[in-house]
């Protein structure tokens, strides 16, 4: 089947899509957007976190056919902002594989809740695994990004 | 291998597709179905996407019940139904991660019919009905009769799950679940409890400790009869303990990768004792 959707604000088409393949496969293998990572393929790790019509989802669990007509935002489509800057400054990136999913998940958290409590942060990120176990620096990054977001630059909804 | 992808936008069309293609696998949030497809555990000849059927994503009052469309996400149950269905909302909060709760649905949980499904114990405790529909008509099945075995239910090949119907909470409700983390876990065992002070009844639901989700009827009868509903006094000595023992006795657990049968029985007794204590404290505090 042909799938048409808006990805990062741009109209995209893919042909010969197997309807049971995932949005993750569509993004990476058909649309050439490798920022969204493929790891567990069962919704356990959060590496493939993207926005689908403004909602945070695991792209590996969305049938590609359901993306027909939808608006998708991936890590490549997020403008550089306090979240990415905070990950850089706090050293929250080790091997980097979980980083794109975490950046999208933190972006969604701060867009929804600019002043998250510690339990809010932990609940929001419970579905994003860091195999390097660098969670303390990741939590530092969230706190720094939240502080700067509150003070200066509110995070806008990423839905194009 | 090709797979047909049916994408109806109305409920009637969805039922017509299911009647014409009974082997089509319904998919809503995809959080169970896609795992099976990704790992090649299943290659259905057709998928039936229910995501465009707007009626499925609605909830509202239906007589004495709340009727939740099968496509209402866990996220919305938490955000919109926490005060009316606190037990189900507590269970929804323990499902997967934020990403999973944004997509996963109670209808999908029932469709998968896993003994470990988190929505099942509170639905059992609340005496919910499952509304099943086909081109032949609609029927409402008590959730206690819905499950027939591990991942099996009374759902006929041409039927779809339309909704669940459950009365708004009449009193305190609780849910507790054992797992290796506080997030992202399939239950080792779980327990839901609902107090109904008007009918003086206690509802129960056990998850992940029998071939299907089950109720603990002897425990419920004991608590219903012995709780001091009128005085609102503290729990009688030993009642929570005996309640826990009866709940453990109602389970029929097995040893598996998540835990042993003995551990599940032990843990269920603890969960039952705790949830009864918490719920009774809430009742005596708030009425």
What report would you give on this structure?
Chain A is of the alpha+beta class. Chain A has helices at 23-30, 82-90, 99-112, 118-124, 135-151, and strands at 3-7, 10-14, 49-52, 55-58, 71-73. In chain A, strand 3 and strand 4 (55-58) form a beta hairpin. The two termini of chain A are 24 Å apart. Chain B is α+β, with helices and mostly antiparallel strands and 287 residues long. Chain B contains ten helices and 13 strands. Chain B has helices spanning 11-20, 33-38, 74-81, 86-93, 98-103, 106-112, 120-125, 217-226, 239-250, 261-286; strands at residues 4-6, 25-27, 46-49, 59-62, 65-69, 129-134, 137-142, 147-149, 152-153, 160-166, 173-178, 189-196, 201-207. In chain B, helix 9 (239-250) crosses helix 10 (261-286). The mean pLDDT of chain B is 97. Classes of the chains: A alpha+beta (160), B alpha+beta (287). The A-B interface holds A 1, 18-22, 41-44, 46, 49, 55-58, 60-63, 65-66, 68, 105, 108, 123-124, 126-128 and B 2-5, 7, 27, 29-31, 33-35, 37-39, 43-44, 47, 49, 51, 96-100, 102-103, 181-184.
Question: What is the topological layout?
Answer:
The complex is a heterodimer of chains A (160) and B (287).
Chain A (H helix, E strand, L loop, with lengths): L2 E5 L2 E5 L8 H8 L18 E4 L2 E4 L12 E3 L8 H9 L8 H14 L5 H7 L10 H17 L9
Parallel strand pairs in A: 1-5
Antiparallel strand pairs in A: 1-2, 3-4, 3-5
Chain B lengths: L3 E3 L4 H10 L4 E3 L5 H6 L7 E4 L9 E4 L2 E5 L4 H8 L4 H8 L4 H6 L2 H7 L7 H6 L3 E6 L2 E6 L4 E3 L2 E2 L6 E7 L6 E6 L10 E8 L4 E7 L9 H10 L12 H12 L10 H26 L1
Parallel strand pairs in B: 1-3, 2-3
Antiparallel strand pairs in B: 4-5, 5-10, 6-7, 6-10, 8-9, 11-12, 12-13
Helix pairs in contact in B: 3-4, 8-9, 9-10
